[in-house]
Amino acid sequence: MSAVSLRLPDEISNRLQRLALATGRSKTFYMLEAIRDHLDDLEDLYLAERELEDVRTGRSQTMSLEAVMKQYGLEG
Predict the structure, then answer these.
(1) How confident is the model at residue 75 (pLDDT cuts 50, 70, 90)?
(2) pTM of the predicted structure, to 2 decimals
(3) Domain spans of the chain?
(4) What one-character DSSP code corresponds to residue 58?
(5) For the segment 13-54, what is each residue's pLDDT rounded down to a tens digit?
């Protein structure tokens, strides 16, 4: 595991400290969770932006929900 130095504003550091004390978890635990969650969100966003660009330029095709449901036998 790599070590990283991070300067936090006092408000965030204090909130993090209170949360860690209240839950018995470490500040590192919560920092890692926050970074993982945010990275997941960013990766999803960039993937969606790439896909949207592919659709707009014609490199990718779309299907209606009705067509997808029919293709997979999910018609109601």
Answers:
(1) confident
(2) 0.70
(3) 10-71
(4) T
(5) 999 999 999 999 999 999 999 999 999 999 999 999 999 999
DSSP letter, residue 60: S
- Calpha distance 27→53 (Å, rounded): 39
* Amino acid symbol at 26: S
Sequence-distant (≥ 6) Cβ neighbours of residue 17 within 8 angstroms: 27
Query: Contact, 12 vs 20, CB < 8 A?
Result: no
CB atoms near residue 17 (< 10 Å):
13
Give the tokens for residue 31.
């920092």
Distance CA 18, CA 75 (A): 51
